[in-house]
Amino acid sequence: MNVLEINSVSKSYSNHLALDDVSLAVPEGQIFGLLGPNGAGKTSLIRIINQITMPDKGALLFNGQPLNSNHISQIGYLPEERGLYKKMKVGEQALYLAQLKGLSEKEAKKALKIWFERFEITPWWNKKVEELSKGMAQKIQFITTVLHQPKLLIFDEPFSGFDPINATLIKDEILGLKAQGTSIIFSTHRMESVEELCDHIALIDQSKKILDGPINQIKEQYKQQIYKVDFASTDLTFLENLPQHLQLISKNKHQAEIQIVNESSASDLIRFLIDQSDIKGFEEKVPNINEIFIRTVKGNLA
Q1: How far apart are CA 103 and CA 84, in angstroms?
Q2: pLDDT tier at 253, thresholds 50, 70, 90
Q3: Domain ranges in the chain?
Q4: Topology of 2-217 in CATH?
Q5: Which of 38, 190, 269, 298 is the most exposed, fewest CB within 10 Å of its CB?
Q6: For the sheet containing 226-231, what is the strand order?
Q7: How many other β-carbons are positioned within 10 Å of the β-carbon of residue 48?
Q8: If we measure between CA atoms, which residue out of 31, 43, 75 comes closest to residue 174?
Q9: Predicted pLDDT of residue 302
Q10: Whole-Å CA distances, 225 to 140, 258, 273
Q11: Cα(145)–Cα(205) distance, rounded to whole angstroms?
Q12: What pTM was estimated for this model as a whole?
């Protein structure tokens, strides 16, 4: 089942087309990577999901129903540009934001106590926001985003400003939320985070969706029949005269990457290689998400 369906959504601002007939489906209980270069249309789509703006065309469904203002309480949004009231005390502000999400003061205090202890920030309860470091302030915003246990979470660059230890802390919390059944839209330029966290990705470029699917299927789709081979010998001179159906991509002392460039198979490559040298290892090279992102966006520019 899909927690969110976006059907043929278009949005323009003045003479700028921000979204052009974009359709997406966010599966329930998964982490959905919303990717794209700067200015692609991601932020416009996130604003529409949060009902900050409305689409010019198209429709959105939340749990199978037309998205409306009643659904906002079931959505948590952590924007890239954070915003806390600097003169307010941390605890007061967290309570205020939690109650805006529909929690009673008693419920909010109980939940905040648990989160503040988990993040080891209880001593900051009575500090003013302006006294916090950027990373500490972002911890507060993360807490207030997830506190009301929304069905759908939207994280826009959630690791921005965090050191590696705190980035790992937030990553583990995101995975924990997924394990509890929360659906998550995850927008970032950090492709290594996409690799670690996402089950499904969609790529938007120049206002259009150009890639969409489960991450493992997309990786399979973008494989180029390149194989990494480990040899027992350092004498790899035979690689300088490969048959026409093979192309040398790279090599070093004991290792080479070889691409099959016609209808030949991996078995054909192995048979050729074992006649030339002893093989210690053989595996197909699977492209990472960063490589797929770059290749797809560049292809869209062609």
Answers
A1: 19
A2: confident
A3: 2-217, 224-285
A4: Rossmann fold (3.40.50)
A5: 38
A6: 246-251, 255-260, 226-231, 279-284
A7: 22
A8: 31
A9: 56
A10: 47, 8, 16
A11: 28
A12: 0.89
d(CA 59, CA 48): 10
What is the Rg, in whole angstroms, of the alpha carbon atoms belonging to the chain?
24
Q: 2-217 and 224-285 share one CATH topology? A: no
138-161: per-residue pLDDT in tens?
A: 889 999 999 999 999 999 999 887
Q: How far apart are CA 272 and CA 245, in angstroms?
A: 11
Q: Which CATH number fits domain 224-285: 3.30.70, 3.30.1050, 1.10.10, 3.30.1240?
A: 3.30.70
- Identity of the residue numbered 113: K
Residue 217 — very low, low, confident or very high, per pLDDT cuts 50/70/90?
A: very high
